[in-house]
Amino acid sequence: MPYNYLHVVRDAWSAPQMRRVPAKLTVALCAVAIVALVAYREVKRTAEREVEYWDWLSMGTLAELQTRDHSIARAEAQIMKDAFSEVEEALSVFRDGSDLSRLVADGTITVSSTSHLARVLNFALKVAEGSGGAFDPTVAPLMEAWGFRGLKVSDPPSATSISNILANSVGWRRVEVADSGDGRTVIASGGTRLDLGGIAKGYAIDVAYERLRDFGGENFLINLGGNIRVSGTNGKGGGGWTVAMRNPLGATGNLQYLPRQLRSGEAVATSGSYERFIEINGKRYSHIIDPRTGMPVDNEQLASTTVIAPTAIESDAYSTTLFVLGEEEGRRFIDGKDGCQAFFIGKNAIGLDALRRVEALCALGQRNALTPGAHTAAKWIADELAAIGLEPEIDEFNDPAPDGSERVFRNVLATARGTCPGRVLLLSHYDTKSGISDDFTGANDGGSSTGLLLALAKHLAVCPAAPYVTFAFLDGEECVRSYGEHDGLHGSRHLAKRLRGEGAALDAVILLDMIGDRDLTLTLPRNGDAELKRRFLSAADQVGRRGAVRLLQYDMVDDHQPFIDAGYKAIDIIDFEYGSLPGLNDYWHTPADTPDKLSAESLQAVGDIVLHMIDGH
Ligand code: AMP
Ligand code: MG
Hints:
Elements: H1 2-14, H2 23-49, E1 52-58, E2 61-67, H3 73-91, H4 99-106, E3 108-112, H5 116-130, H6 140-145, H7 159-168, E4 176-179, E5 184-188, H8 200-215, E6 220-224, E7 227-231, E8 244-246, E9 255-257, E10 267-272, E11 277-280, E12 283-286, E13 289-290, E14 295-296, E15 302-309, H9 312-334, E16 341-346, H10 349-363, H11 372-388, E17 393-400, E18 406-417, E19 423-429, H12 443-460, E20 468-474, H13 490-502, E21 508-513, E22 522-524, H14 530-542, E23 549-551, H15 561-565, E24 570-574, H16 600-614
Helix pairs in contact: 1-2, 3-8, 5-9, 8-9, 10-12, 10-16, 11-12, 12-16, 14-16
């Protein structure tokens, strides 16, 4: 009914025709008109809230306009496009006739003080000075030596050639910019070549932004290769724009929301080595070069840097600078810069987070099923999920214990609601095996997968480009004597039955256990879905861990089995070689299963594999 009603109203207003209305119908029509007017306003409001998208290629990358200024959207796209072309004409190193190319060719150029070249170069030199040369617009000779400018190189440049380049061609102090007094600026390149790739896109965004505002644009987001600036609001609440950036961790193409909305006028940019790099002899080199050493930035810890700033030229230049400086120095650099905020994403952020959580879980003490310790652990997991921003559910259920008595078990569940199609269930048990020793805390056995699932929950809670992912922390996996109808797999049997009963459609059920071993070997039991195994192998390949995988020729009794029995596609990812020597499993179910045996790198690798597996589901 509401649909028909709206439909009629829309038609009436999209084809307004003046005609005389017979008197006796007027009253009735008036009533309709008032309702229609209210409803029409509603329709119009909905439309205004909607965002219109335009995109095209500019300056060798993707340009995008998102706008709610519907009546001038086309004109806005054109203004942006023209602004980008104009900046490219002035600043591109790839265009022979550009001001920048002429400066490099002739060694000097005189331009208007308000020209793009003068403005960008002035700011670039300021950042160069402020960063102690970490940001340097004269990196062009180094970019070439490393094969980033057309000519591919078969070997990395030698130490001698790098020091020659540093001694003779690189260094922002060589460049001189002088005001000639008549509104013109004289630039001398001092025998070096310039590369404005770390700043030009941000500057172009600012030029477009100012022009769109002057034109009357109010609510828009503009993006040039990840350099973003916003105006007004996206109309979806919060008073600004919710922006997602490409996330260097996990699967490629994974987007992650910024920790806060961008307010009107603000800009953001990200720098990292994960998307643009060059491969020489099988080793990857970052396209961001440290001008102080001549080497591509090879930061062990840092995957990317993101900067929110009042203008896009700042966010662009500063994000590149911070990637060179690293987190510690970078924080000192950005502190005190008005309106600027920086975010550093570490290479093993998920793994480190997971490890921290495993340690916290183990510190709570034993979690043997049907003991207060298990109840404490369930509450702790639920609290962690709530702190992440998800809505945890503690699913309490009765099940016969090994002695036949009905007892209470607790699974903990939460769902991250990504916007991509598909639904994935990630499983871990959290209980510890009873009867081993008083100090057994199952750091790898139950602990590692619980920690990793929580870290993945935190990661996926802010990733819009993911499917629905439900995290289930299962109770009573371990058996007291031997696995049977009333012993072990309590949580998984209950959950599989519950989901089947609810008619839940799942694309994949992925069980993780014992995945934190420093010496990571991933052993896949035979019982498991073939397609998921293939997906797993290709994901392991993508993260460079294919060599650590063994496909077992035997089945394993584990929490994935009840899901297979219930007709779901399930897989068990487990490292069943957890011991003092490669191939041994002598830490398993012993007091030696402690957090110090685990590593953030292993947890990160498994996290990456899982993210690749669920990507595109
Ligand atoms: P971005 O993607 O904004 O972080 O900038 C990376 C680009 O900046 C590279 O592709 C080079 O063109 C340039 N670049 C590389 N290293 C530096 C540096 N240390 N300072 C300034 N620009 C750089
Ligand atoms: Mg930059």
